[in-house]
Structure formats: structure tokens, C-alpha cells
Amino acid sequence: MLKKRAKSGPGEINAGSMADIAFLLLIFFLVTTTMDTDVGILRLLPPVVETPPDPDVINKRNVYEVLVNDADQLLVEGEPMDIKELRAGAKEFMTNPANLENLPAKTKVSAAFCREQLNLNKGWMAAATDTSKARFEDGVKKWEGKLKAIELLGEYSELPNDALISLQTGSKTSYNMYVQVQNELESGIRELRDELSKEKFGRKFTELDEKVDEDQDRIKAIRLVYPQRISEAEPVDLTKKN
Amino acid sequence: MSRFKEKKGSTPAISTASLPDIIFMLLFFFMVTTVMREVDLKVKVVLPEANEVAKLEDKALVDYLYIGPPADKARGTEPLLQLNDDFATLSEIDAFVVAGNERRDEVLRGKITRSLKVDKDTYMKFVTDVKQELRKSNALKINYSTSRGR
To answer: What is the ipTM of this complex?
Structure first.
């Protein structure tokens, strides 16, 4: 009897419950994991500075001032505005199509000027000591970037260096409103970039692929023309301001 | 008689032998596409909607700060800050940032994003205070977490 059993082997294991075990595991994973990928508006905070810049020195025409009060109402450049108009407002600020006095003055960047500056910086870099070399290296990179942009886009008008959109909120402004305003401003810049990219490269800016070398240069060039400068500046007490 | 018997036997039981395989396939799909839930939320967060959003690519380089009214009514309705698994005060943000930095490799420290998951009805005062604390701790890369809308 014993002998016979050993010969026929231990018999087949019933695999009927295998599905149940797998189901159990599946349900465990369904419960403990999340599928949503985190999306949001990415921002870079400015580093803490000891002495904040003097507001009187700032050139008013280069700052697009957006204030949101405690009742979630907008005051843009001193005028009340509906949030639906903010996108167009931001676009006008960035482009200044009519060359208005109160919007940033754009300067034309020419290839010749870039080359001249590049050579100057290269000369300085060669002559410089180790400590100041880094500064000229940055200069070389900056002008090389501009030359590349001209190569890709043709000669373009450049925003002044201190042009920025300044967003300030009251203490009781709702976070929702803040995000909506950020969203509209971002939209405006994105639309400008899309338009330029479509005109020059036949594709939207958002469709350019960062992983392709050719597109990488294009992205950099377009960012030079329409930089995204939305300031996360020092909180200001709005009640004192008005 | 024999015909009747045959008819009865013409639909044999469907083999369930491949059922575990199918379930395992599903299981692997979920294991690959999802990530573990990191924290138990003690605050209620309803994210605001936005459409100009970017994806946070590397989850390993994201730390989360949750701000919203507490889920437990006994704690009131004022928004609170949650770090890791527990409520925290503003002064604890610095330690949180430092701990986040130390957990990562030195070369990656500048690339850590702090994602703010803030309830949409929170007042900006609180958010601004948190942002100021982050600035002081030199955690400058932040993300306003939103849900994709419109």
C-alpha cells in the first residue's frame, strides 16, 4: 500500500484557490496605491534677500502689477479688472504692440551686436583671473544663447531685464482665486509662446519635445523672447498700501 | 436515451485554470502603474482647478505639504498644516525641509520640489506664511498642486 502511493507521486495540488489569492493581492494593491499623477503649477520662489529692492527705483512701466483683494477682486495696473480680461492684459504687457508709454520698451536684438558682445566677453574671460572668470563665462553663455535665438527666430525684440509680472494678494484672498490668477497669467505667456512657435516652426510650443536636441534649442530661444517672470515677491500688507 | 445524454454533456464546465493568470496580469498592471499612498490625510484638501499644469515627473523628488481644514471636526474648522503623518506648526517646516534634504543624495538636493496641496478655500495669509518659511529654509522649488480642469 505504502509503496504504491510513493510510486504515483504526491498528486496534483488543487489550483482552484489560486485565483482567490491573486484577487486578494489585487484588492490590496487597489486599496493601498494611488493612480493620480500629481499635476500643478510649478514656481520658483526668490531667495531671501537682506535688503529688498527699493520700490521707488523700480521702473513702473516694466512691472505689471496685479493685486487681488480680500474679496477676490482684481486691481491691475491701478484699474479694476475682470479675471477673464487678465490673459489679454498679460499678453499686451509682454508684447506692447502699440509701443505704449506705460508698457515695457522693447529693444531689438541684432546679430551684429550679439557677436560684438560675445567677442568682448570672450576677450575679458581670457584676460580675467580665476575669481572673476565665472562672471564672464555667464556673459559668454548669455550672448551665445541670444545668437542662437536669432539664428532660429530672426532678429527679435527683447523685453527689458527687469520686466516682470508682480502678483500680490490680500491676507483673506482665497487660494482658489490665487491659483486662477496664476493660471490666467501662465495661459497668456503660453499662448504667446505657442503663437511664435507655430509661426516659426509650424508646431505649438507645448508640442516641442525637450528630449530632442533640435527642439531644445527652439524652446530656449522662445523662452528668451517671452520669459516667464511671475514674481512671488515679498508679501505686502495691502491695507497699508491703499 | 443515448442522444439525450449526449446533449447534456455537450457544454462541459468552463476551465478556470487560466483565471489566476488573468488576475495576476491585472495585479501586475496595477503594481506598475500606481504608487503607494504615502500618508494618511488628516486634513481635507479639495484642490483648485487649473488647466496650465505641468506634471511632476519624478515622484521620488517631491515632498508634500498639506493645508486644509482638519478632517476631525473636534479640531475646529481653521485650516491646519500637515507634514508627513501629523499636524505641524509653521516652525516645523524648516526641520521638514532639512529632513527631506538629508534623505536624498547630495547632488539631487537642489532638484527637490515641495508640492503644496492646499484646500481651495484657504486664505492666502496661511499659504504666504508657509511660502515664507520655505524661502527661509531655502526650499525654493515649489508646486501649487491642482486638479486638471476645464
So the answer is: 0.78
